[in-house]
Design brief:
The complex is a heterodimer of chains A (about 200) and B (about 130). Chain A has about 200 residues and is of the alpha+beta class. Chain A contains 5 helices and 10 strands; from the N terminus they run H-E-E-E-E-H-E-H-E-H-E-E-E-E-H. Chain A has one domain: 3-Layer(aba) Sandwich (Glutaredoxin), CATH 3.40.30. Helix content of chain A is about 35%, strand content about 30%. Chain B is globular. About 5% of the residues of chain B have low confidence. In chain B, about 10% of the residues lie in helices and about 50% in strands. Chain B has one domain: PCu(A)C copper chaperone (Immunoglobulin-like, Sandwich). Chain B is mainly beta and about 130 residues long. In chain B, strand 1 and strand 2 form a beta hairpin. The chains are: A alpha+beta (about 200), B mainly beta (about 130). At the A-B interface, helix 2, helix 3, strand 7 and strand 8 of A face strand 4, strand 5 and strand 8 of B. Strand 8 of chain A pairs antiparallel with strand 5 of chain B.
């Protein structure tokens, strides 16, 4: 009897660990709707507009030459792979944490130059005041660092930031975070498949 | 005999000068920035220093590095890149890179952009980097 109880307990713990390791988070993001403007300056609510679909969200600023393009490219490659395999119902979102410089039109250009199509992609902008609550909810930090002025007198600065891609399920729950620039693409792809039961 | 001698000189010199290879950069929209990557091989017995890069595509080009602090990623300007004797230096995503700011025009996949790399010993080397 003791052996039986022991086996059941061990099995339950293993199942629990297994589930946790696949999707370690379950943070409900629907308790508050956050309003943003997309690349066409159309106002949308997040995560409201994405409910019912899996969302892959990355955090960027367009003046970032290295990390943010890597994050964007990783999401682009994942989208391409999903398309190739006929997997739909996945939204891709890029949210700027540098709204003072990244307006919707710039976000649109940032995407277009990378051949991103907007069927299932949204690039989101709002003022700092309206962006920061969602960043805080998702534990994203973005801190301006070295600054200088260009020859034309324009302020130029860099941002130290969380390197992140997050996976949000169909119910608007944050389920897993990844390093955006170095994410294991197979892991992200398989997690999407698992979440969508594809 | 003269031809052979010239060939030997050419062969010897090609193997003993600074080489820049595998250069590429990311797409970027006019007014925004991008990053240039490449590898520098220094087969000589002296160190060399890359201290400046110029191009018609931008008048704001800086030598940069990406760094991690706690769980955050940032980047900062570095004054120069030193390539030690008989060694190489790789500029790659997530590490050393050339930051090309305020692009004067859109650069798209498959474009080729010319850059002039200024070294203290080797002088100027012109490269054409493919956008991908």
């Amino acid at each position: 009897m003791k052996l039986f109880i022991y086996s059941i307990t061990v099995s339950a713990v293993l199942i629990l660990i297994g589930c946790q390791s696949e999707f370690p988070l379950n943070k409900d993001l629907t308790k508050q709707n956050y309003n943003f403007f997309n690349q066409d300056s159309v106002e949308i609510s997040f995560p409201g507009i994405n409910l019912g679909r899996i969302t892959v969200i990355g955090f960027i600023y367009t003046h970032c030459p290295d990390i943010c393009p890597m994050t964007t490219h990783n999401m682009f490659l994942t989208d391409q792979r999903l398309n190739k395999d006929g997997i739909e119902n996945v939204n891709f979102v890029l949210l700027t944490f540098d709204p003072d410089r990244d307006y919707p039109s710039m976000l649109k250009k940032f995407a277009q130059i990378r051949d991103i199509e907007f069927d299932n992609w949204s690039l989101l902008w709002n003022t700092k005041q309206n962006t920061n609550p969602l960043l805080k909810r998702l534990d994203i930090l973005a801190i301006p660092t070295d600054s200088s002025y260009t020859d034309n007198g324009e302020l130029n600065y860099y941002v130290m930031h969380t390197d992140r891609i997050s996976l949000i399920d169909q119910k608007g729950h944050l389920r897993k975070n990844y390093m955006g620039s170095t994410v294991n693409l197979d892991e992200l792809y398989n997690d999407i498949k698992t979440l969508g039961k594809y | 005999m003269i031809t052979l001698f010239a060939f030997l000189i050419l062969f010897y010199s090609q193997g003993n000068i600074l080489q820049v290879k595998n250069q590429w950069l990311r797409p970027g929209a006019k007014g925004m920035g991008t990053a240039l990557y490449f590898e520098v091989e220094n087969p000589t017995d002296k160190p060399d220093t890359l201290y400046k890069i110029t191009s018609d595509i931008s008048s704001m080009i800086q030598l940069h590095e990406t760094y991690a602090k706690d769980e955050l990623m940032g980047m900062r300007e570095v004054g120069e890149f030193v390539i030690e004797p008989e060694s190489s230096l790789e500029l790659k995503p997530g590490g050393y890179h050339i930051m090309v700011m305020k692009l004067k025009r859109d650069i798209k996949k498959s474009d080729e952009i010319e850059f002039k790399l200024h070294f203290k010993n080797a002088g100027s080397i012109i490269i054409r980097a493919k956008v991908k």
